Inverse folding.
């Protein structure tokens, strides 16, 4: 596809369940980012993948959150034992280079934890 | 650590006027600063990038300035239109990782006809 895609677009889950969110970056983009955006809040950085380097996990809020990127392309963000405070829109972005390049965002996954 | 602030949560202006949005940062001057537009229910969309050695950058009705002395960027939309109504985010490089950005909370612009 031409842009970054994310699935599902909406996810409703019960507290304590695990969820997986998927991101398909733009083909050829070496960098991939995950963000979280709560209602009325800014973008909260979660994790950053760049090529084959070790990911920057400094933004993950707890050890319930993890992410992987297979084959340098598709990424999955996993939230284990979801809590109500995990409810937010999870945005994925990709870019082509290191510093200076723009990020192309997907439409996001809206997660609601009941 | 670097902090970024967008002074206004919301800005309401009349159609045809110039909208000016402010972005301030607190620590070291970044190599570049970016502005994004976000519409409800969508991801942010890149608008402009300005580098530290550039004072001003223009794109159609958009103008961005970068003052490293004041540690501030201004984002202007001239001849504003209701279609310009959206949330505008500024972003700059995050010190921990090259290629990573820190985003402001955004300013919600409403242009009234």
């Amino acid at each position: 596809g031409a842009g970054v895609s994310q699935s599902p677009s909406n996810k409703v889950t019960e507290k304590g369940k695990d969820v997986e969110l998927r991101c398909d970056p733009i083909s050829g983009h070496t960098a991939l980012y995950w963000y979280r955006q709560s209602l009325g809040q800014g973008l909260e950085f979660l994790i950053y993948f760049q090529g084959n380097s070790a990911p920057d996990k400094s933004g993950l809020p707890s050890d319930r959150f993890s992410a992987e990127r297979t084959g340098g392309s598709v990424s999955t963000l996993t939230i284990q034992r979801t809590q109500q405070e995990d409810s937010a829109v999870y945005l994925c972005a990709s870019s082509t280079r290191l510093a200076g390049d723009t990020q192309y965002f997907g439409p996001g996954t809206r997660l609601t934890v009941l | 650590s670097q902090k970024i602030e967008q002074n206004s949560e919301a800005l309401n202006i009349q159609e045809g006027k110039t909208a000016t949005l402010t972005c301030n940062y607190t620590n070291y001057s970044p190599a570049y600063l970016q502005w994004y537009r976000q519409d409800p229910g969508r991801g942010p969309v890149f608008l402009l990038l300005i580098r530290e050695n550039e004072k001003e950058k223009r794109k159609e009705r958009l103008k961005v300035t970068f003052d490293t002395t004041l540690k501030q960027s201004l984002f202007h939309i001239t001849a504003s239109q209701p279609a310009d109504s959206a949330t505008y985010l500024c972003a700059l490089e995050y010190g921990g990782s090259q290629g990573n950005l820190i985003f402001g909370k955004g300013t919600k612009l409403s242009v009234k006809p």
Remarks:
- Chain B has no helices and eleven strands.
- Residues 78 and 97 of chain B are 35 Å apart (CA to CA).
- The radius of gyration of chain B is 14 Å.
